[in-house]
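Field reference: sequence -> structure
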Amino acid sequence: MYNFDFVKAGSVADAIAALKEEDAQPLAGGQTLIPTLKQRLAMPSTLVSLAAIPELHGITQDGDTLTIGAATTHSTVAREVAQSYPALASLAARIGDPAVRNRGTIGGSIANNDPSACYPAGALGSGATIVTNDREIAADDFFQGMFTTALEEGEIVTAVRFPIPQAATYQKFIQPASRFPLVAVYLAKYADGVRVAVTGASEEGVFRWSEAEAALDADFGAGAVKGLSVEPGGMIGDIHGSKDYRAHLVQVMTKRAVEALL
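Structure field:
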């Protein structure tokens, strides 16, 4: 590790003010950022901790809308939304290991937008709204590519607002060493249609599989996606799985998601 200044913000306003300093970077749960700092892949001069800001914590429900504060940990989500939104609770309960789940936060995961992270699939598959200190951004507009989001310089996620679906499931093919998904599919059924979000597969990060959505809107059954496939050229290829293998898994995991809801 190297020397840097550390600011423990007590409010969103304090955090935004501190982030105006040159080379300042926000710190949420730190499950990605701290290892990155140790490897010198990032070297901000100031870390602004968001962990102690009360307004970034907590979960509330208003009718069919669930709002989760950005600093809420994975373990808290897994525990507290098990009744109101079981699929999201299941997603949170299977992130990493207990240490990661008790430190990592939903806001940090979504802002980082790792191409194999779980929460971006949950947010995109749910048609969630990402709330920041300055505006509200639809999940369809928020995730813009590998480690890339619509967040501007000095802007932080303050909450994520989920419309609760009629039914949903998260099917995750786990890479056992990292606990990240090799490929995972989040499928949610709403009155106005089906949403299918895929993570772990694409070089561009989380994406909606529109062909599967259209097929399932027409006929919600496992057979609806049987003949569908994604182009392997844009998939991740590494020691854990080839591009063709990941493309195949997208179809397999979507079929499993449909079967789980049936």
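Note: The longest strand covers residues 181-190.
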